[in-house]
Amino acid sequence: MNYGIVAEFNPFHNGHKYLIDTIKNNGENTVTVVMSESFVQRGECACMSPYARTKMALSCGADLVLSLPVPYATASAERFASGGLSVLGGLGCVDALAFGAECDNAEILKKCADILVSSEFSVALEKYLNEGVSFPVARQKAVEEISGKENSQILSSPNNILGVEYIKAINKLGLNMEINPITRKGVEHDSKVANDNICSASALREMLHKKTDFEKFLPDEASDILKEEIKNQKAPANYNNLETAIICKLRSMSVEDFKKLPDVSEGLEYRLFDAVKTSVYLEEILEKVKTKRYTHSRIRRIIVCAVLGIKNEDVLAPVPFIRVLGFNENGAKILKKAKSTATLPIVTKSSEINALGNAAKRVFELECFARDVFSLTLPVRDEFGKEMTDKLIVL
Questions:
Q1: Contact, 181 vs 112, CB < 8 A?
Q2: Tens digits of per-residue pLDDT, 45-74?
Q3: How far apart, in whole angstroms, are the C-alpha atoms of residue 111 and residue 329?
């Protein structure tokens, strides 16, 4: 079977290796990954380039790595999942979806997914949102009201939430994929505490910035790639390097400009505009905009979209193509099969995008700009146009 994974690998660590090894089952299955490129769902830059992370994934068991376009990579969990499943579904030869989660019971996750698309849920959600709580809190309360605390508790864990959103996307897109949740090993999402040789990606990124030892938390192949990137001053990327540029961009924006961004509604554009005009640091803006209703992560994503020029219509638009970042021998076989099964164009060269129309060109232009902005976050800045010139990773 060919299993699909939606991932960031930011960076690739032992927990990711465990997930892939479990799926591959001693070589019986193949793994196709859809991966964020330069910016990620937490509203920050990735810790290293997409091609270095692609090489990590392929060196550690993945067979084919595809791009998750930046409008979806920097979106809410629902849009992130929808973008990832659109790419996997568009390939036409992915048999099952696998993901790490705190709950490995597919039926419970499916039940939660069904609740979230029910009319009963919409009514309950609106009620709790009107009380001024954040969307995640309102969602959990609405599910508890409808089906009890046991199901609502599922939505208290980030990876469970993503898993439920993946299932929603599969149902909405009408995809024929099995669901295979795999219990996360070692530590919780974003945990700062390590467990033996397993730690979270966020803990690893902190180690990179503090220049503390990280090797035991990565497979040897991934560790070697990361060390080479650090040696060449291509990692770790630091989002703080963009602070002046971000504030400059935000200060140039009108209320109407903020209103056009993804996830901006109910007058949030005025709150953002006022915060920008009365702040001199990015953290100050975040603190002024944050309320019970608007979480830090939501505001960070909005700000990243502002900097990258991503508008609401970009996130709502369907994925226009499948872009290959790298593959191995098994991945080449998957791509060969996809020639007869794919429902979206498969792109291996940037020059091929011009023939796909304006929607495809718009997505790729955003990706190229995101990579050029990302290049400014590196210890030594990269040259302009890397997204156009970097070669496919072939192992």
A1: no
A2: 999 999 999 999 999 999 999 999 999 999
A3: 38
